[in-house]
Amino acid sequence: MASTDSTALGSHLSRGQVIPAMPLALDENREWDKRYQRALARYYVEAGAGGIAVGVHSTQFEIREPKHTLFEPVLEFCAQSIDDCVEEHSNFVRIAGVCGTTEQASREARFASDHGYDAALLSLTALADADDIALIQHCKTIGEIIPLIGFYLQPTIGGRTYEYSFWRRFVEIPSVVAIKVAPFDRYATLEVVRALADSGREDVYLYTGNDDNIIHDLLSTFSFAGKELRFVGGLLGQWAIGTQKAVELLKRIQSGEGSIAEWTIANTELTDLNGAIFDPTNGFSGCLSGMNEMLRRDRLLPSHLCLEESEQLSPGQAEELDRVTAAYPHLLDREFIAENLDRWLNG
Question: Is the full-model pTM beyond 0.85?
Answer without folding.
Answer: yes
